Amino acid sequence: GQSLEQPSEVTAVEGAIVQINCTYQTSGFYGLSWYQQHDGGAPTFLSYNALDGLEETGRFSSFLSRSDSYGYLLLQELQMKDSASYFCAVRDGTDKLIFGTGTRLQVFP
Amino acid sequence: DVKVTQSSRYLVKRTGEKVFLECVQDMDHENMFWYRQDPGLGLRLIYFSYDVKMKEKGDIPEGYSVSREKKERFSLILESASTNQTSMYLCASSSKDSGRNSNEQFFGPGTRLTVL
Questions:
Q1: Which chain A residues are closer than 8 Å to B33 by Cβ?
Q2: Residue B105 has what DSSP assignment?
Q3: CB within 8 A of B37, min separation 6: which ones?
Q4: Contacts of B78 (CB under 8 A, 6+ apart)
Q5: Which of A45, A63, B100, B101 has a Cα-to-Cα distance from B92 of 20 to 30 A?
Q6: A54-77 pLDDT tens trace
Q7: Are the Cβ atoms of B102 and A50 closer than 8 angstroms?
Q8: What span, in angstroms and rounded, lies between the C-alpha atoms of A36 and A25?
Q9: Distance from CA of A78 to the nearest CA of B (A)
Q10: What mean pLDDT comes out for the span B19-44?
Q11: How far from B36 is each of A28, A34, B43, B99, B113, CA to CA, in Å?
Q12: CB–CB contacts below 8 A, A to B
């Protein structure tokens, strides 16, 4: 079957760095994406990795290792507004995404 | 500002009713998707569409059907609502290419459906 594994919950304090891991097992691979969803809100796209390595977008970075079927989202200089759920997603060769079950990040003052 | 809109934020229906959830996007996207989201289960794909009048089953299509008569509109139909279809329903769209754009889905605000 196809699956993406990520931790269910992560906690951290303001100003800290947190890493959310994602391992995937899919029949095809055409990119790893990350989405953020605040409570009551819609998921919004954060980042995309098609090739191995690190992609940086401001305080957020995303990493991919295709040989390990692994990626992570790195959030630096955490702010209270970063408290949300984060989903990794893989495009499997069609235009549909397979989503992980999400990681709830709680940032404390 | 790109936008995906859904017809209702909250909906309450009775068991056995026929339910229509509408989704409209203004980005001229080829792909449209319907998901349901339940606590601890993430986003599960119900149906998707690559083009007008085209539909493909997702992971959990049972009890649902869809319609895409126009490019901008994708409707989800619950033929006979049941209590286990109480959930948050999210519509999304994306463009059809081989790169980043097809990984970037734009979501609507969601419809929280309660079936009594």
A1: 96
A2: P
A3: B43, B44, B87, B88, B89, B90, B110
A4: B13, B17, B18, B19, B21, B63, B64, B85
A5: A63
A6: 999 899 999 999 999 999 999 999
A7: no
A8: 21
A9: 24
A10: 94
A11: 23, 18, 6, 25, 10
A12: 61
